[in-house]
Amino acid sequence: MKHPLDNPIYNALISGHQIFAKGTEQANYYEQDIASFAGLKDNSEADFEALYQNSPEASVFVVFTPSPLTLPKNWKLLTHIDMFQMVYEPKTVPVGVDDGFTELNEFHVPEMTALVALTQPGPFKPRTIVLGNYTGVYHEDQLVAMAGHRFNPTPYVEVSAVCTHPNHLGKGYAYQLLREQIKRILEKAETPFLHVRNDNHGAVKLYQKLGFHIRIEMIAYVIQKVA
After folding, report:
1. Are residues 72 and 98 in the same domain?
2. Measured at the alpha carbon of residue 129, what is the angle toward residues 91 and 169, in degrees to the nearest 5?
3. Which of 35, 65, 108, 122 keeps 20 to 30 A from 128, CA to CA?
4. 36-73 as b/e, with b when 16 or more CB fall inside 10 Å?
5. Whether residue 141 is found in the same domain as residue 43
6. The pTM of the whole model exceeds 0.90
7. What CA–CA distances, in Å, run from 90 to 131, 174, 183?
8. Domain extent at residue 120
């Protein structure tokens, strides 16, 4: 049997995030104001056709796969990103403190969107926050760091949107926020995981310091539906 993290988007949308799923059993995707991710059951040509037939015109999706894909002719490749998928397997929380962060909600979305635009940790949409557990660090009334949850292929929860304002790097904010995310996931008896660009050596080193290890390589394809 395949590991659920080999196809994290699809498996999230048939388990922990089923309430946010659109599409069919072969090809599902998040509500578009939440996330641009699509999950294909087997990444087959038939799955791509199902996604094509059951999604809005000119849709742009991000698809994850452990191995290279050949796209059908009715899909255009916009870009691809080579990543590591990392998993946290210890059952204890890393050393640290339990305060210094702010619970983020819908009120904070404009600030969150601005920080994401500046730091580019990955897609963030108007309702991405409904995926839950977003926490941030403020400095002089400015949001300078944040992190939250994304995919939930039960029993795994992805840590995502980890970012820090360039003027506040090196202050330990990312470690503090990641530790809090790990703590919350472990408290639900689930397992934290994340994705990171394979050329982001500083982030990989930080995640390894916290206790994450590289499980597999993953490719993110950004694709657009064409006529």
Report:
1. no
2. 70
3. 65
4. bbbbbbebeeebbebbeeebeeebebbbbbbeebeeee
5. no
6. yes
7. 24, 19, 11
8. 86-216
